[in-house]
Amino acid sequence: MSGHVGDLNPKQSAALDKLKEKVADITDQLEESDDYFFLRWLRARNFDVEKAEKLLRDHLVSRKTWRMDELLAWEPPTVLQKYLTGRFHGHTREGHPIFWERTGRLDLKGIVRSATQEDIVRCRVKDGLRMLEKFKSQTEKLGRRIDTCVIIYDLEGLSIQKHFIPKGVKAIIEMVKVFEENFPEILEMVYIVNVPGVFDLAYNIVKPFLNDVTRKKVVPISGAPQVCHERLRELIEPSELPACYGGTFVPEDGDVSCDSLLVSSALVPRAMYMSAKVPVNEDSETLTVARRSSAQLEIAVTKPNCKLWWGFASEQYDIAYSVLFKPEQQAGVKQHAAQMEEIVPSKRVDSHQNFEEGSTTCAKMGVYVVRFDNTYSWTKSKVVHYLTRLEVASDEQEEAELGAAAASACADDAS
Predict the structure, then answer these.
(1) Residues of the chain with pLDDT under 50
(2) Which string of b and e fits 14-36 if b means at least 16 CB within 10 Å?
(3) What gap in Å lies between CA 142 and CA 206, rounded to an integer?
(4) What is the rounded CA–CA span in Å between residue 10 and residue 82?
(5) Residue 118's pLDDT is what?
(6) CA–CA dist 111, 229 (Å, integer)
(7) What pLDDT does 408 receive?
(8) DSSP conformation letters of 264-291
Protein backbone atom coordinates (compact mmCIF):
# COMPACT_ATOMS: atom_id res chain seq x y z
CA MET A 1 0.00 0.00 0.00
CA SER A 2 1.23 3.50 -0.84
CA GLY A 3 0.68 4.97 2.62
CA HIS A 4 -1.55 7.73 1.29
CA VAL A 5 -5.12 8.53 2.33
CA GLY A 6 -7.42 5.80 1.02
CA ASP A 7 -4.54 3.40 0.40
CA LEU A 8 -3.47 2.18 3.85
CA ASN A 9 -2.98 -1.34 5.10
CA PRO A 10 -4.05 -2.27 8.67
CA LYS A 11 -0.56 -1.64 10.08
CA GLN A 12 -0.39 1.80 8.47
CA SER A 13 -3.88 2.71 9.69
CA ALA A 14 -2.91 1.69 13.23
CA ALA A 15 0.27 3.79 13.00
CA LEU A 16 -1.78 6.81 11.91
CA ASP A 17 -4.14 6.46 14.87
CA LYS A 18 -1.22 5.97 17.26
CA LEU A 19 0.64 9.04 16.00
CA LYS A 20 -2.44 11.26 16.37
CA GLU A 21 -2.87 9.96 19.90
CA LYS A 22 0.79 10.58 20.86
CA VAL A 23 0.84 14.16 19.58
CA ALA A 24 -2.61 15.15 20.83
CA ASP A 25 -0.94 17.58 23.25
CA ILE A 26 0.52 19.66 20.39
CA THR A 27 -2.15 19.27 17.70
CA ASP A 28 -3.42 22.80 18.26
CA GLN A 29 0.09 24.13 17.51
CA LEU A 30 0.40 22.38 14.15
CA GLU A 31 -0.29 24.13 10.87
CA GLU A 32 -2.57 21.24 9.82
CA SER A 33 -4.09 18.27 11.60
CA ASP A 34 -5.78 16.11 8.98
CA ASP A 35 -4.79 12.59 7.90
CA TYR A 36 -2.97 13.90 4.82
CA PHE A 37 -0.69 15.93 7.08
CA PHE A 38 0.10 13.19 9.59
CA LEU A 39 0.74 10.62 6.88
CA ARG A 40 3.48 12.81 5.40
CA TRP A 41 5.48 12.51 8.62
CA LEU A 42 4.79 8.79 8.87
CA ARG A 43 5.86 8.06 5.27
CA ALA A 44 9.06 10.02 5.84
CA ARG A 45 9.93 7.60 8.65
CA ASN A 46 8.58 4.42 7.07
CA PHE A 47 5.62 4.40 9.48
CA ASP A 48 7.83 4.19 12.56
CA VAL A 49 5.54 6.04 14.99
CA GLU A 50 8.25 7.00 17.48
CA LYS A 51 10.50 8.44 14.77
CA ALA A 52 7.58 10.25 13.14
CA GLU A 53 6.59 11.74 16.49
CA LYS A 54 10.14 12.97 17.11
CA LEU A 55 10.30 14.49 13.63
CA LEU A 56 7.01 16.29 14.21
CA ARG A 57 8.00 17.62 17.61
CA ASP A 58 11.37 18.75 16.25
CA HIS A 59 9.46 20.53 13.50
CA LEU A 60 7.56 22.59 16.08
CA VAL A 61 10.84 23.76 17.59
CA SER A 62 12.15 24.53 14.12
CA ARG A 63 9.02 26.54 13.29
CA LYS A 64 9.81 28.82 16.21
CA THR A 65 13.52 28.95 15.38
CA TRP A 66 12.88 30.06 11.80
CA ARG A 67 9.79 32.12 12.73
CA MET A 68 7.82 30.37 10.05
CA ASP A 69 4.55 32.01 11.01
CA GLU A 70 6.07 35.35 9.91
CA LEU A 71 8.30 34.15 7.10
CA LEU A 72 5.97 34.58 4.12
CA ALA A 73 5.94 38.33 4.83
CA TRP A 74 9.73 38.47 5.21
CA GLU A 75 11.70 40.25 2.48
CA PRO A 76 15.11 38.63 1.86
CA PRO A 77 18.18 40.85 1.45
CA THR A 78 18.48 42.34 -2.05
CA VAL A 79 21.49 40.21 -2.91
CA LEU A 80 19.51 37.01 -2.32
CA GLN A 81 16.50 38.25 -4.26
CA LYS A 82 18.69 39.02 -7.27
CA TYR A 83 21.36 36.32 -7.22
CA LEU A 84 20.17 33.28 -5.27
CA THR A 85 18.97 30.78 -7.86
CA GLY A 86 15.69 28.91 -7.53
CA ARG A 87 12.30 29.93 -8.93
CA PHE A 88 8.79 28.51 -9.30
CA HIS A 89 7.48 28.09 -12.81
CA GLY A 90 4.77 25.93 -14.30
CA HIS A 91 3.27 22.55 -13.42
CA THR A 92 3.68 18.97 -14.50
CA ARG A 93 1.02 17.31 -16.64
CA GLU A 94 -0.40 15.89 -13.38
CA GLY A 95 -0.62 19.34 -11.82
CA HIS A 96 2.40 19.31 -9.49
CA PRO A 97 4.12 22.71 -9.04
CA ILE A 98 7.69 22.86 -10.37
CA PHE A 99 10.67 24.51 -8.69
CA TRP A 100 13.62 25.19 -11.00
CA GLU A 101 17.06 25.39 -9.41
CA ARG A 102 20.01 26.40 -11.60
CA THR A 103 22.65 25.44 -9.07
CA GLY A 104 25.40 25.27 -11.69
CA ARG A 105 24.93 28.98 -12.41
CA LEU A 106 24.94 30.03 -8.78
CA ASP A 107 27.77 32.32 -7.69
CA LEU A 108 28.04 30.46 -4.40
CA LYS A 109 31.21 32.22 -3.31
CA GLY A 110 29.59 35.60 -3.87
CA ILE A 111 26.39 34.56 -2.07
CA VAL A 112 28.12 33.36 1.11
CA ARG A 113 30.25 36.51 1.16
CA SER A 114 27.22 38.75 0.79
CA ALA A 115 24.64 37.18 3.11
CA THR A 116 24.54 35.24 6.34
CA GLN A 117 23.96 31.50 6.29
CA GLU A 118 20.84 32.09 8.35
CA ASP A 119 19.32 34.35 5.69
CA ILE A 120 20.31 31.95 2.90
CA VAL A 121 18.59 29.05 4.66
CA ARG A 122 15.64 31.28 5.58
CA CYS A 123 15.08 31.91 1.86
CA ARG A 124 14.73 28.19 1.23
CA VAL A 125 12.41 27.76 4.19
CA LYS A 126 10.26 30.53 2.73
CA ASP A 127 10.26 28.67 -0.61
CA GLY A 128 9.00 25.59 1.22
CA LEU A 129 6.17 27.58 2.77
CA ARG A 130 5.29 29.06 -0.61
CA MET A 131 5.19 25.55 -2.00
CA LEU A 132 2.59 24.57 0.60
CA GLU A 133 0.51 27.56 -0.49
CA LYS A 134 0.77 26.43 -4.12
CA PHE A 135 -0.48 22.98 -3.12
CA LYS A 136 -3.60 24.54 -1.66
CA SER A 137 -4.31 26.66 -4.75
CA GLN A 138 -3.72 23.71 -7.11
CA THR A 139 -5.97 21.49 -5.02
CA GLU A 140 -8.76 24.07 -5.23
CA LYS A 141 -8.18 24.65 -8.94
CA LEU A 142 -8.11 20.97 -9.97
CA GLY A 143 -10.63 19.67 -7.45
CA ARG A 144 -8.28 16.92 -6.28
CA ARG A 145 -5.52 16.69 -3.73
CA ILE A 146 -2.13 18.08 -4.78
CA ASP A 147 0.51 17.89 -2.06
CA THR A 148 3.78 17.14 -3.81
CA CYS A 149 6.05 19.08 -6.14
CA VAL A 150 8.79 18.42 -8.68
CA ILE A 151 12.22 20.02 -8.37
CA ILE A 152 14.49 20.26 -11.40
CA TYR A 153 18.16 20.92 -10.73
CA ASP A 154 20.20 22.23 -13.65
CA LEU A 155 23.87 21.55 -12.85
CA GLU A 156 25.41 23.02 -15.98
CA GLY A 157 28.51 24.88 -14.86
CA LEU A 158 28.90 23.04 -11.55
CA SER A 159 32.58 22.81 -10.68
CA ILE A 160 34.84 22.08 -7.75
CA GLN A 161 36.44 25.53 -7.97
CA LYS A 162 33.16 27.47 -8.01
CA HIS A 163 30.93 25.46 -5.75
CA PHE A 164 32.96 23.23 -3.42
CA ILE A 165 33.91 25.95 -0.94
CA PRO A 166 33.56 25.24 2.81
CA LYS A 167 31.08 27.98 3.74
CA GLY A 168 29.00 27.28 0.64
CA VAL A 169 28.87 23.54 1.25
CA LYS A 170 27.98 24.17 4.89
CA ALA A 171 25.08 26.41 3.84
CA ILE A 172 23.79 23.87 1.32
CA ILE A 173 23.93 21.04 3.87
CA GLU A 174 22.03 23.19 6.37
CA MET A 175 19.38 23.94 3.72
CA VAL A 176 18.94 20.23 3.02
CA LYS A 177 18.69 19.37 6.71
CA VAL A 178 16.16 22.10 7.46
CA PHE A 179 14.06 21.15 4.45
CA GLU A 180 14.06 17.46 5.39
CA GLU A 181 13.06 18.29 8.96
CA ASN A 182 10.22 20.65 8.09
CA PHE A 183 8.81 19.62 4.71
CA PRO A 184 8.83 15.82 4.63
CA GLU A 185 7.23 14.02 1.73
CA ILE A 186 6.36 17.05 -0.37
CA LEU A 187 8.59 15.84 -3.21
CA GLU A 188 7.04 13.95 -6.09
CA MET A 189 10.38 13.63 -7.89
CA VAL A 190 13.73 15.41 -8.18
CA TYR A 191 15.27 15.50 -11.67
CA ILE A 192 18.89 16.41 -12.36
CA VAL A 193 19.61 17.82 -15.82
CA ASN A 194 22.90 18.76 -17.49
CA VAL A 195 24.63 16.26 -15.22
CA PRO A 196 28.34 17.14 -14.85
CA GLY A 197 31.28 14.88 -14.14
CA VAL A 198 31.42 16.05 -10.52
CA PHE A 199 27.79 15.11 -9.86
CA ASP A 200 28.62 11.98 -7.83
CA LEU A 201 30.96 13.98 -5.62
CA ALA A 202 28.35 16.69 -5.07
CA TYR A 203 25.55 14.23 -4.40
CA ASN A 204 27.63 12.23 -1.92
CA ILE A 205 28.02 15.39 0.18
CA VAL A 206 24.26 15.89 0.68
CA LYS A 207 23.16 12.24 0.42
CA PRO A 208 23.77 11.41 4.12
CA PHE A 209 21.27 14.12 5.09
CA LEU A 210 18.47 12.73 2.91
CA ASN A 211 16.18 10.01 4.20
CA ASP A 212 15.84 6.78 2.22
CA VAL A 213 12.46 7.78 0.82
CA THR A 214 13.84 11.03 -0.61
CA ARG A 215 16.92 9.36 -2.09
CA LYS A 216 14.75 7.09 -4.21
CA LYS A 217 13.12 10.13 -5.80
CA VAL A 218 16.36 11.64 -7.16
CA VAL A 219 16.70 10.86 -10.89
CA PRO A 220 19.66 12.13 -12.99
CA ILE A 221 18.79 12.58 -16.68
CA SER A 222 22.00 11.92 -18.58
CA GLY A 223 22.69 12.01 -22.30
CA ALA A 224 22.53 14.60 -25.07
CA PRO A 225 20.36 17.74 -24.62
CA GLN A 226 17.68 16.37 -26.93
CA VAL A 227 17.34 13.30 -24.68
CA CYS A 228 16.87 15.52 -21.66
CA HIS A 229 14.39 17.75 -23.49
CA GLU A 230 12.34 14.77 -24.57
CA ARG A 231 12.12 13.50 -20.98
CA LEU A 232 11.03 16.93 -19.79
CA ARG A 233 8.36 17.16 -22.50
CA GLU A 234 6.96 13.87 -21.23
CA LEU A 235 6.71 15.43 -17.80
CA ILE A 236 5.61 18.97 -18.70
CA GLU A 237 3.34 20.42 -21.38
CA PRO A 238 5.53 22.21 -23.98
CA SER A 239 3.54 25.41 -23.41
CA GLU A 240 4.73 25.48 -19.78
CA LEU A 241 8.23 24.16 -20.41
CA PRO A 242 10.86 26.93 -20.88
CA ALA A 243 12.23 27.13 -24.42
CA CYS A 244 15.79 26.54 -23.21
CA TYR A 245 14.70 23.11 -21.98
CA GLY A 246 12.91 22.03 -25.16
CA GLY A 247 9.53 23.65 -24.63
CA THR A 248 7.76 26.59 -26.24
CA PHE A 249 7.40 28.90 -23.24
CA VAL A 250 9.21 32.23 -23.64
CA PRO A 251 8.90 35.02 -21.04
CA GLU A 252 7.45 38.37 -22.01
CA ASP A 253 10.89 39.89 -22.53
CA GLY A 254 11.53 37.40 -25.35
CA ASP A 255 14.59 35.88 -23.68
CA VAL A 256 14.65 32.28 -24.95
CA SER A 257 17.45 31.45 -22.48
CA CYS A 258 14.90 32.27 -19.74
CA ASP A 259 17.58 33.91 -17.60
CA SER A 260 15.11 36.57 -16.50
CA LEU A 261 12.62 33.87 -15.52
CA LEU A 262 14.92 31.41 -13.77
CA VAL A 263 17.78 33.74 -12.64
CA SER A 264 20.82 34.56 -14.73
CA SER A 265 24.37 33.43 -14.07
CA ALA A 266 25.57 36.92 -13.14
CA LEU A 267 28.26 37.23 -10.48
CA VAL A 268 27.47 38.98 -7.21
CA PRO A 269 29.12 42.43 -7.34
CA ARG A 270 31.96 42.78 -4.87
CA ALA A 271 30.32 45.94 -3.58
CA MET A 272 27.62 43.69 -2.07
CA TYR A 273 30.10 41.56 -0.13
CA MET A 274 29.67 41.83 3.63
CA SER A 275 33.19 43.22 3.91
CA ALA A 276 31.61 46.50 2.74
CA LYS A 277 29.16 46.53 5.65
CA VAL A 278 28.68 44.96 9.06
CA PRO A 279 25.48 42.84 9.20
CA VAL A 280 23.76 44.39 12.22
CA ASN A 281 20.03 44.03 12.83
CA GLU A 282 17.48 44.78 15.54
CA ASP A 283 18.22 41.53 17.39
CA SER A 284 21.98 41.96 17.60
CA GLU A 285 24.02 43.08 20.59
CA THR A 286 27.34 44.94 20.54
CA LEU A 287 30.40 44.77 22.75
CA THR A 288 33.92 46.18 22.66
CA VAL A 289 36.85 43.91 23.43
CA ALA A 290 39.75 46.00 24.71
CA ARG A 291 43.26 45.47 23.42
CA ARG A 292 45.19 42.69 25.20
CA SER A 293 41.89 41.52 26.66
CA SER A 294 38.95 39.19 26.05
CA ALA A 295 35.19 39.13 26.68
CA GLN A 296 32.78 36.35 27.55
CA LEU A 297 29.12 35.72 26.81
CA GLU A 298 27.55 33.37 29.35
CA ILE A 299 24.59 31.26 28.24
CA ALA A 300 22.85 29.21 30.94
CA VAL A 301 21.64 25.82 29.68
CA THR A 302 19.09 24.20 31.98
CA LYS A 303 18.02 21.33 29.72
CA PRO A 304 20.33 18.74 28.12
CA ASN A 305 20.72 18.38 24.34
CA CYS A 306 19.85 21.97 23.52
CA LYS A 307 21.42 23.51 20.42
CA LEU A 308 23.42 26.68 20.92
CA TRP A 309 23.86 28.92 17.84
CA TRP A 310 26.03 32.01 17.58
CA GLY A 311 26.86 34.51 14.86
CA PHE A 312 28.99 37.64 14.89
CA ALA A 313 30.84 40.24 12.85
CA SER A 314 33.62 42.59 13.91
CA GLU A 315 34.39 46.06 12.66
CA GLN A 316 37.62 46.67 10.72
CA TYR A 317 39.71 43.93 12.36
CA ASP A 318 39.69 40.19 12.94
CA ILE A 319 39.20 38.48 16.30
CA ALA A 320 39.58 35.03 17.84
CA TYR A 321 36.81 33.11 19.58
CA SER A 322 36.10 29.82 21.30
CA VAL A 323 33.23 28.11 23.10
CA LEU A 324 33.83 26.83 26.63
CA PHE A 325 31.87 25.17 29.43
CA LYS A 326 31.77 25.57 33.20
CA PRO A 327 29.46 24.27 35.95
CA GLU A 328 26.32 26.16 36.90
CA GLN A 329 27.89 27.09 40.24
CA GLN A 330 30.50 29.17 38.39
CA ALA A 331 27.95 31.39 36.60
CA GLY A 332 29.05 35.01 36.65
CA VAL A 333 32.50 34.13 38.02
CA LYS A 334 35.39 35.27 35.82
CA GLN A 335 37.65 32.39 34.86
CA HIS A 336 40.66 31.91 32.63
CA ALA A 337 40.03 29.94 29.46
CA ALA A 338 42.33 27.19 30.74
CA GLN A 339 40.07 26.72 33.78
CA MET A 340 37.05 25.84 31.62
CA GLU A 341 36.25 22.85 29.44
CA GLU A 342 36.88 23.49 25.74
CA ILE A 343 33.87 22.80 23.50
CA VAL A 344 34.95 24.64 20.33
CA PRO A 345 38.71 25.30 20.06
CA SER A 346 39.92 28.86 19.79
CA LYS A 347 40.45 30.16 16.27
CA ARG A 348 41.19 33.54 14.75
CA VAL A 349 38.63 34.51 12.10
CA ASP A 350 38.23 37.29 9.53
CA SER A 351 34.87 38.32 10.94
CA HIS A 352 35.45 41.85 9.65
CA GLN A 353 35.15 40.42 6.13
CA ASN A 354 32.59 37.62 6.57
CA PHE A 355 29.83 37.00 9.09
CA GLU A 356 31.03 34.14 11.31
CA GLU A 357 28.53 31.65 12.71
CA GLY A 358 28.39 28.18 14.21
CA SER A 359 26.50 25.90 16.55
CA THR A 360 26.99 23.09 19.02
CA THR A 361 24.77 20.62 20.84
CA CYS A 362 24.87 21.21 24.58
CA ALA A 363 25.15 17.65 25.88
CA LYS A 364 25.04 18.67 29.52
CA MET A 365 23.54 21.39 31.69
CA GLY A 366 25.60 24.29 32.94
CA VAL A 367 27.05 27.52 31.58
CA TYR A 368 28.33 27.72 28.03
CA VAL A 369 30.71 30.58 27.31
CA VAL A 370 31.31 32.20 23.92
CA ARG A 371 34.69 33.87 24.44
CA PHE A 372 36.05 36.62 22.18
CA ASP A 373 39.83 36.79 22.45
CA ASN A 374 41.74 39.96 21.60
CA THR A 375 44.76 39.29 23.83
CA TYR A 376 47.03 39.05 20.80
CA SER A 377 46.39 42.67 19.77
CA TRP A 378 48.69 45.24 21.40
CA THR A 379 47.08 48.36 19.94
CA LYS A 380 43.54 47.71 18.63
CA SER A 381 40.27 47.32 20.50
CA LYS A 382 37.63 45.31 18.61
CA VAL A 383 33.93 46.10 18.21
CA VAL A 384 31.85 42.93 17.85
CA HIS A 385 28.18 42.67 16.84
CA TYR A 386 26.75 39.32 17.87
CA LEU A 387 23.64 37.16 18.03
CA THR A 388 23.07 34.03 20.10
CA ARG A 389 20.14 31.64 20.22
CA LEU A 390 19.33 28.55 22.23
CA GLU A 391 17.03 25.92 20.77
CA VAL A 392 15.57 23.79 23.56
CA ALA A 393 15.29 20.02 23.08
CA SER A 394 12.19 19.04 21.12
CA ASP A 395 10.28 17.46 23.98
CA GLU A 396 10.23 20.82 25.72
CA GLN A 397 8.65 22.57 22.74
CA GLU A 398 10.09 25.96 23.50
CA GLU A 399 12.84 28.28 22.37
CA ALA A 400 14.87 30.63 24.46
CA GLU A 401 15.87 33.82 22.69
CA LEU A 402 19.07 35.08 24.17
CA GLY A 403 19.90 38.76 24.24
CA ALA A 404 21.24 41.15 26.78
CA ALA A 405 19.36 39.48 29.64
CA ALA A 406 20.71 35.97 28.96
CA ALA A 407 24.12 36.67 27.51
CA SER A 408 26.25 38.96 29.62
CA ALA A 409 29.55 40.30 28.39
CA CYS A 410 32.33 40.57 30.91
CA ALA A 411 35.92 41.67 30.47
CA ASP A 412 38.62 39.11 31.18
CA ASP A 413 42.02 40.73 31.10
CA ALA A 414 43.83 37.47 31.72
CA SER A 415 43.94 34.74 29.12
Answers:
(1) 276-277, 395-409, 411, 413-415
(2) ebbebbeeebeeeeeeeeeeebe
(3) 34
(4) 50
(5) 83
(6) 30
(7) 47
(8) --PPPPGGGSGGGS----TT-EEEEE-T
